[in-house]
Amino acid sequence: MQPSYLKVFLTFARNSLVRDMSFRANFIFTCISSMAWAGMNFGLFKVVYQFTNSIGRDSGWGENEFFIFLGTVWLINSLIQTFCMANMERFSEMIRMGSLDFALLKPIDTQFLISFPRMNWAQLPNGMLGILLIIVSLNALAAERGDNLYLSIWNVLAFVFFIACGLCVMYSVMITLASTSIWLGRNQQLYNFWFYITNFYRYPMEIYQSGTIGWTLWGTFTFVIPILVVSNVPARVLAQPLGTPWQRWEWGFASLAVIFAIVSLLVSRFVFRSALKSYRSASS
């Protein structure tokens, strides 16, 4: 009998929360540390906007628009780090120590089982700060644009939908990187490599659209490792709402987010299953 994946997921979530609450001081300090990083990040861009009106020449990313973008990045980062990051880092140890054998024997999908057993709830406050920053920036943007800000429930639903698409892309990249541990034996640089590539999605894509290096980065992280669509599409939905006359390429870019979400999940699933075929248990 197949287990209920929702019930299993909720059990993982509850057990992780109980474990975190067993060390409350550590949990609180981790939350404070995480929020302090977000505060410094916010302060940095506040300083930047004292010297410029927008990030990227004629990009349209003014201060309020950019802080909507920044809040979106915080939200995505928070969700990924809460639900996936610890598990992806642990995967190589499961292979090395042989505990992956036990996961393979369980009557549940192995990829699901290794993706969500541990959740780092201390990272969730960053997502809450991101939502708060988005709301405050939207209010400021509404005051700035007046009647020219077309924001409705459909924009909010579209924002949530494209956040989900972005999470699918990010998860797919992570599980693909983690799967290489089966072939490499150990992949301790996963987090470092993840940090390097995700640095690029923390900024509007317009800043890359200049010069050979910039266009190369834009093409790589839009079509090869499609992380630019992760943050740019949902942020653009709110900062430049769908109720306004989007250009044709913007609609195409939004469509890419859906396509890349589906394709990335399929590719990551293929890579994971291919890697499992190469796995040799600890007893072999």
- Proportion in helices: over 70%
DSSP strand content: under 5%
* Bulk shape: globular
Mean pLDDT, to the nearest integer, reads 85
Alpha-carbon distance between the two ends: 29 Å
Structurally, the number of domains stands at 1
The topology string of helices and strands comes to HHHHHHHHHHH
How big is the Rg? 20 Å
Give the number of helices. Answer: 11
Q: What class, by secondary structure content?
A: mainly alpha
Please report the total strand number as a whole number: 0
> Major sheet, described briefly?
none
Q: Uncertain regions: pLDDT < 50 for 5+ in a row?
A: none
Question: How would you describe this structure to a colleague?
Answer:
- The chain is 73% helix and 0% strand.
- The protein has one domain (5-277).
- α3 runs parallel beside α7 (153-184) and α10 (228-239) runs antiparallel to α11 (248-277).
- It has helices at residues 5-21, 24-48, 63-97, 100-105, 110-115, 124-145, 153-184, 190-198, 211-224, 228-239, 248-277.
- The model has no long low-confidence stretch (mean pLDDT 85).
- The chain is mostly helical and 284 residues long.
